[in-house]
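I'm curious: can you give me some protein's one-letter sequence along with its backbone structure tokens because I've never seen that pairing?
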Amino acid sequence: MKRKAIECLVPILFLISWSPLLAADTPPERPNIVFILADDLGWADLGCYGADLHETPNLDRLAASALRFTHACTPAPVCTPTRASIMCGKHPARLHMTIWREAASDQPTDRRLLPPTAEADLPHAERTIAEVLRDAGYLTAHVGKWHLGSVEHFPETQGFDVHLAGNHWGAPATHFFPYRGRGHGAIRYVPGLGFGKPNEYLADRLTDEAIAIMRQAGDRPFFLNLWHYGVHAPIEAKSGDIELMRAKARPELHHQNIPYAAMVKNLDDTVGRLLAALDELGIADRTLVVFSSDNGGFLGPTGREPDRPVTSNYPLRSGKGSLYEGGIRVPLIVRWPGVTQAGAVCEIPVVSTDLYRTLAEVAGTVPRLDAAQQTDGRSLKRLLLDSNAPPEARTLFWHYPHYYPTTTPASALRDGDWKLIEYLEDGRVELYDLAEDPSEAHDLAKSEASKAAELRDKLHAWRTDIGAQMPSVNSAARQSN
């Protein structure tokens, strides 16, 4: 479907030295792109996905005007690997970025297996989606959580013209200004956000900065990453939001963590403000909006309510860190005015890795691909054009050779409605029919032994093909047992 040429002619105010970057002519028919990524937000945490305590009217309205995916997954059950896959379109196992950055070289030595040492930094040799879009004429901006490398690998080195508030850590010490303090044994801070106010909340401030960038974007279409630190721990929320959620809480609800519910409410409020700013600027009909999360909901417990799980991923099983659906299935909402059908729902399984090719195609460009820069995702443009398009034959894969409170090292695949998980300590497999058993409650590995064997062979071939790193036997642990 064709769209009118778009032009945003607003002078950039806060980066005068960047004016040469903004002088290029704007080719026609390319939308602005706003990508909002929540941190640790579960599949069932939004009203439009079945949340009960949580209030998300703005995201629900966005979904009502957009295409909502019900079987969208991340390629990893934790943050850094998913973010890397989004940026370069490759599976985390191919990148050897299979765990969050701080743990890349700090794995347990007292377990049955020794996890592999993972890459801590997204290599500069990878061609990121920001580089693809910048070369296509977009102004590129990143606001918020990065978690893809040390200062030598910050967004400025990976294709972003503008960068605010990202660093190499996975979470702030606090969500309240001045956003610094002791966390995880060190003093943490969020850079670039000086001159705040007492009680200023991080998601609000990041949204302020994102809206300012949209106002000052210049005469090219823009690609804006607004990657929130919330709703990741520490579980902190504004007092007024906490009281609103406390008044709504009921013992029969699946979601019971009141401060977390208040964080979700604030996240929704910020999305509403950003969408309102698009309307105010007169560019909403020229802007593709993507909303998603980096992994399934964190079960906890943590924070101000230590006796309650942080969230519930019901009806999905388990949560962050696990290769059950609760750890890898996430919300995905895409609004492309004039293209996506309002209120459409797509049940075809997709994965965050697909966003690389999707955004490139939306921008009217094709990434330069060769043997070194191949991608593992597929463009979702045909589904944006027609959510009822027939599914294509496809197998999705996961590889998490690490320990987490919800799992031991494991790999998995989804082939149609079949889901196989292999646990690497002992080679045990579990098999589920997601069409009949979305909660993964009934293991069919014994009753469907031939199917389990077929899928396990396919999983092993895939790991070999992409060079997935495998854990090794911990001889010291074996001797101690």
Summary: The first strand starts at residue 32 and ends at 38.
